[in-house]
Amino acid sequence: xxxxxxxxxxxxxxxxxxxxxxxxxxxxxxxxxxxxxxxxxxxxxxxxxxxxxxxxxxxxxxxxxxxxxxxxxxxxxxxxxxxxxxxxxxxxxxxxxxxxxxxxxxxxxxxxxxxxxxxxxxxxxxxxxxxxxxxxxxxxxxxxxxxxxxxxxxxxxxxxxxxxxxxxxxxxxxxxxxxxxxxxxxxxxxxxxxxxxxxxxxxxxxxxxxxxxxxxxxxxxxxxxxxxxxxxxxxxxxxxxxxxxxxxxxxxxxxxxxxxxxxxxxxxxxxxxxxxxxxxxxxxxxxxxxxxxxxxxxxxxxxxxxxxxxxxxxxxxxxxxxxxxxxxxxxxxxxxxx
Length: 338
Prior knowledge:
The protein is of the alpha/beta class. It has 2 domains: 7-130 and 323-333, NAD(P)-binding Rossmann-like Domain (Rossmann fold); 134-318, 2-Layer Sandwich (Dihydrodipicolinate Reductase, domain 2). 31% of the residues lie in helices and 25% in strands. Helix 3 (78-90) links the parallel strand 6 (71-74) and strand 7 (94-97).
């Protein structure tokens, strides 16, 4: 737990899309801040960010820039987090890390606050923020798994450009204009153009022919839910959406799960918004969640091929709940209880 006083906070990776969202949410949620330091690479150092009525200059991350901080919200990539982990620990700060560097370490809690908040209190100076797709999936699975044990999950993701960063978002905008102008789009950030296109996730393929992103979902979901042998298969796809991910989820339980009960549990679950209007054929869309906190879930239905299975659809803002919001919610778990 943090001391009962405003904190000195460093946002590591302050120049990126998640960094900007972290700053916005820290202000919106009135997080207790005494001092805030914006840190990034040498390339971004010197640029100025307007935050909470003040102009703050981004500093290059260094030992001096980290001395005296209480909390580091890190979103600068795994190599940077690995480089600075020990020093951050040595100055007595807690790091909440948005990279994949430490997620599967046995001694590092991997936390979605609405699902396994108690794990955050077991930290030894480092808490991992899960992958964006995993966070959204865990919010849907957890309230159902508490009622009837899950046997197997099959998920397909529809992932926005924001998952590849701010430059990928700008490229999608630019290349869409290129296509509309009748020109051939040439991607520089992503391996292929996302303009009016989609492709299987571009993370490295593993020896089992699943990509790294897909295996993150498998392994992280097992850890968060505390079901180490959960059968889970994922197919991850990049789609031409700016900043909200979607997922199609098939869940097999140990026995039949009434749709009405599933809707009731999801509607009451923290962090979830049910959008399920069968009469109007109206279910969650990326535009429903862009810039918003909840994960929208809908089209919960009986799987016609298996009496023990349900299917559902969900959408969530990748930058917000899929990254920045979840990190700040973790930090809030460490604040003194008022």
